[in-house]
Amino acid sequence: MKLRDRLLGGALAAATMLTPGTGMASSHREAPFITKNPKVDGTDFYMFNSYEGAARDGYVTLIANYLPLQDSYGGPNYFTLDPEALYEIHIDNTGDGIEDITFQFDFDLNLTNNGTGVELPIGGKNINIPLAVAGSLSSPTDADQNMIETYKLGVVRGPRRGSAATSVTNLADNSTTFHKPYDNAGGKTIANYASYANQFIYEFDMPGCTPTGVQAGTHSRVFVGQRREGFAVNLGQVFDLVNMGVSALGVTPANGQADLTGAADQGKNIVGNKNITSLAIEVPASCLERDASSPIIAGWTTASVRQARVINPTATFKTPAREGGPWVQVSRLGMVLVNEIVIGIKDKDKFNGSEPKDDGQFADYVTNPSLPILVEVVFGATGALAPTTYPRADLVAAFLNGVPSVNVMSPTLFEAVRLNTAVPATSRANQNALGAATCFDPPANNTVGPTLNLARTGCDPAGFPNGRRPGDDTVDIALRVAMGFLLDQNHAPIRGAPLVDGAKVDARDFLAAFPYLNTPAAGAP
């Protein structure tokens, strides 16, 4: 029996690897300090076995989203990333909470024409234009661009600051430079944005790895650029003290409220018209795994800036400030919603600057989560009571250690997205938005966990929390787990309630191929 088949059943138990005490919004503007630095604000991290088709079997897709809540009409400067920051995606394949592989994205922003930009002859003088483009765009090197955004991609083995990155070669031109597309300003600037953006999907071969288990002649891929926001959430009502009805408990929704126990799709995705900037890479699973017998990997993304910044009193395009000193991490994201809803406000900035290996310091937020109590305060009179067992042992393994025989890599406690790459991908058409949570029967008592039942209708073992795909409804899953889905009825009064936020998530609404997230909303028709 192949390893992939042998581990399939056990990997289904990863449904217990659900984020504790979470729900309601992704990590957009989740900590006080990061609100001052939106360009390095990590919002979502996806990690899943690619499901594009047979040609991409054996590949894993990693997507790190930054710079939240972009309005499509955000001109004239739109949404470039920070050329003074370092954006990274980390993989731990040994289970010590320390990265073993890091993908580093280093951006640069320059005026074209050797630093002069696009100029117009006006009254005998050449005048630089005030807009980012001077005409319609159709390719990465259009002459009408006033400024151009590029990046270099590097791979570090071992601790991220332990050695220099090995540069990745762009197979299109054998250089080490990759281009980022201009944001979707509108149909006059870029007539067919999907076709335009596809030109910025580049192939590369991962340094230091000869892949196995993939189709011969295929290569790794990278895309960095604007995408439509893929996370769906009823953001306004949730953060208005969960301003929603609960019809199943006798509270009738009113005044446009969503129903906390109503249909999954109530048209409440308030961020559906926003854009995001995605850093997406697709690499062979064998290049991420420790070895052929160790298919479990853990991943997260971070952004770092220099420790010192001095504002330039005579700013130029290239040097509005001077920055130096060691790198300091200011953003961190693994599992969805953790810093936004689980970590207390006093420790949010601390969490953003921390490393997974040190996550034991945040364990109390997991064993004694506050969100269920807050829900009880708001809805307690209706019977929406929080679980009554503490510490929440049902959440500790899931949040900080993985699932025994499935996702446990070591005794080290750390928070990250864990993926068992041996579980085959589910095609887009057959994905269930509730992911692996659909594969379990409720526990009979508090001494045993939920029972794995592969025959359950809709069982989808390749979904969250076995990794995370764009089509996984992490909010609805997390709401239910927070209120005791993994506990018995005696210790979780509403464990069976089909809690929702009313914002639809469906894999079929996303692209079927890399980079999976949709073409961004346009600033104009």
If you had to describe this structure to a student in words, what would you say it looks like?
With 525 residues, this protein is an alpha+beta fold. The protein has one domain (3-509). Helix content is 12%, strand content 23%. It has helices spanning 3-11, 112-115, 193-198, 235-238, 338-342, 348-352, 363-367, 371-379, 393-401, 474-482, and strands spanning 42-49, 59-70, 85-92, 101-111, 119-122, 125-128, 147-157, 166-167, 178-179, 202-204, 220-228, 275-284, 296-311, 321-333, 417-420, 440-441, 451-452. Strands 3, 4, 7, 8, 9, 13, 14 and 15 form an eight-stranded antiparallel β-sheet that branches. The chain has a five-stranded antiparallel β-sheet with strand order 1-2-12-11-10, with no helix packed on it. It has a two-stranded antiparallel ribbon with strand order 5-6. A hairpin with an 8-residue loop joins β3 and β4 (101-111). The termini are far apart. The model is unreliable at 1-25 (pLDDT under 50).
Compile the SSE list and pairings.
Blueprint lengths: L2 H9 L30 E8 L9 E12 L14 E8 L8 E11 H4 L3 E4 L2 E4 L18 E11 L8 E2 L10 E2 L13 H6 L3 E3 L15 E9 L6 H4 L36 E10 L11 E16 L9 E13 L4 H5 L5 H5 L10 H5 L3 H9 L13 H9 L15 E4 L19 E2 L9 E2 L21 H9 L43
Antiparallel strand pairs: 1-2, 2-12, 3-4, 3-13, 4-7, 5-6, 7-8, 7-9, 10-11, 11-12, 13-14, 13-15, 16-17
Order of helices and strands: HEEEEHEEEEEHEEHEEEHHHHHEEEH
Class based on secondary structure composition and strand pairing: alpha+beta
Count the strands? 17
Distance between the termini: 54 Å
Mean pLDDT metric:
89
Q: Count up the helices.
A: 10
Any idea what the radius of gyration is?
A: 23 Å
CA-based shape: globular
Beta strand %: 15-25%
Approximately how much helix is present in the residues? 10-25%
| Sheet having the most strands | 8 strands, antiparallel
**What's the oligomerization state?**
single chain
Number of domains: 1
